[in-house]
Write a structure and sequence with these properties.
Blueprint (H helix, E strand, L loop, with lengths): L5 H51 L5 H11 L1 H6 L1 H23 L5 H32 L4 H12 L3 H11 L3 H29 L3 H11 L3 H11 L1 H15 L2 H17 L11 H17 L3 H14 L8 H21 L3 H6 L2 H24 L1
């Protein structure tokens, strides 16, 4: 019988262990890739079908078909959630960000600055009207303070991203966050379906509709869906307005952080002797860092692509293919968003938060149209 020297046995075990770990990691990678590919394939099939329908029937548009088709097939997505969910998450988050960044290929920094400055009055008016309405109407409807704040901020700025930035600052409960996100999502989908025919009925130009969608819709996916369903020429205007509006996350989080600190400082210290002022100060100091971190990455990517185009790094011949690719990616992302629709969760929110969301949605829409018309 052949014996293995001590030194050889000493080095053989780590080698076998490394081989086993490498094999295990390889299997995990294959499983992860297969999970992502399944969800991407499902959303991609719906998105491509929606693109074909949109080309055949431009009045409806690929974005609306993608959202509705995804929503109709959402029971299948929930049934096969373990297999499809990783890929659907990639489609609705990463593909959407890539598509928004690609839309910057036809813009210059000067155009972005001009659109941002021109839309500022409408943006500030809708923001003020929505936040004031959330405070007043929320009290009338007896919606909790944190919940009405989350719905107001989500409607006024950028949907779930604004809710995610605000909830730690005001220390909102998980249930309130879930209610707010569900409510906001419902009216995002409604905006994608209702705003294009409303714009046609009002006779809005593509630029005017882009301003309307960019200031009155709170989620980037729904902004793109509504604008692209209305007129492809409206998409860039809507995206630029929406991205400038997204920057309002930072001052809103700072103001809410200050209000929370003042409210806690004025509370009865005898009732809560464990609360320390220095802890409040440390919490407030984290607000600026949190706000900056939660500025969406696609905003940075969009600015980089616009900068590259402004510097002449993108050939003019590449603009149209990049735009078409972006629109296909948008359809796939919107299909994934439709597949994530949970009607039962919306029912569980109750009618009061939904009614508040409806009233704020109407307030922002009417304010945007009124101020844009006046300006």
């Amino acid at each position: 019988m052949t014996t293995v020297p001590v030194r050889e046995r000493h080095f053989a075990r780590p080698a076998r262990l490394a081989h086993t770990m490498s094999a295990a990691s390889g299997v995990s990678a294959v499983r992860a890739a297969s999970g992502v590919s399944g969800g991407l394939a499902f959303a991609g099939a719906i998105g491509l079908a929606a693109t074909a329908v949109g080309m055949a029937c431009p009045v409806i548009g690929a974005p609306v078909v993608a959202v509705v088709g995804g929503a109709l097939l959402s029971p299948l997505a929930r049934r096969w959630g373990g297999v499809l969910q990783p890929g659907l998450d990639v489609a609705r988050v990463r593909l959407l960000r890539v598509s928004v960044a690609l839309l910057g290929a036809q813009l210059s920094l000067g155009e972005v600055a001009d659109v941002g400055v021109a839309s500022l009055p409408v943006m500030l008016a809708t923001l003020a009207a929505c936040l004031a309405g959330a405070a007043l109407l929320g009290r009338c409807l007896k919606v909790g303070r944190d919940l009405r704040t989350l719905i107001g901020v989500g409607t006024a700025i950028c949907g779930a991203s604004a809710i995610a930035a605000t909830s730690p600052t005001i220390r909102a409960k998980n249930a309130d966050v879930a209610y707010a996100v569900s409510t906001i999502f419902l009216f995002n989908v409604a905006a994608a379906l209702v705003f294009p025919p409303l714009g046609h009925a009002l006779g809005l130009s593509p630029g005017a509709f882009g301003l309307f969608a960019g200031t009155a819709v709170n989620d980037m996916s729904s902004v793109v869906a509504a604008a692209s369903a209305y007129d492809p020429a409206a998409v860039q205007q809507a995206v630029v307005v929406k991205l400038v509006r997204t920057l309002m996350i930072i001052p809103i989080v700072l103001v809410l952080g200050a209000l929370v600190r003042d409210r806690e400082a004025s509370s009865d210290l005898d009732a809560e002797p464990h609360r320390q002022p220095d802890h409040q100060s440390r919490h407030l100091l984290t607000a600026p860092r949190r706000a900056v971190r939660l500025v969406p990455g696609f905003l940075v990517a969009f600015v980089l692509v616009v900068s590259a185009n402004s510097a002449g790094l993108l050939p003019v011949a590449s603009h149209e293919p990049l735009h078409r690719g972006a629109m296909i990616l948008i359809a796939v992302a919107l299909a994934a968003i439709g597949l994530a629709t949970d009607v039962a969760a919306l029912r569980r929110t109750g009618y009061r938060p939904l009614l508040l969301g409806l009233l704020l949605w109407a307030t922002v829409s009417l304010t945007s149209l009124a101020v844009a018309g006046a300006v």
